[in-house]
Design goal:
Layout lengths: L8 E2 L1 H13 L6 E8 L5 E8 L6 E5 L2 E5 L1 H7 L3 E7 L2 E7 L5 E2 L5 E3 L1
Length: about 110
Amino acid sequence: MRVTEPPIKLSDNAVKRIAHLMSKDQHPNPALRVQVKGGGCSGFQYSFAVDQVAAGDEIIERDGARVVVDAMSLMYLAGSQIDFIEKMIGSQFSIGNPNATSSCSCGSSFAV
């Protein structure tokens, strides 16, 4: 059997937070949808939402956490790592994206 790496990696902190969010959701088989949309100060921005799996989605699962990414967004996110960062001023998901050539200071938008 050949084991392949997922196209997007999840940090331990992201796995814990996603699993926690999914345990609170009332929908059957919820997932964290990660999308790339046009906009933001650098051209593209990341979007996170609890959603259901749709046809054509890439599904990444680990230890009770499920992330779904549509094919268009996956082109921009392949090789990325999703993390969850907690600070005194707030908590947020963060994406380490090797495809980004630049990003804004808040980390929510990027350029390729």
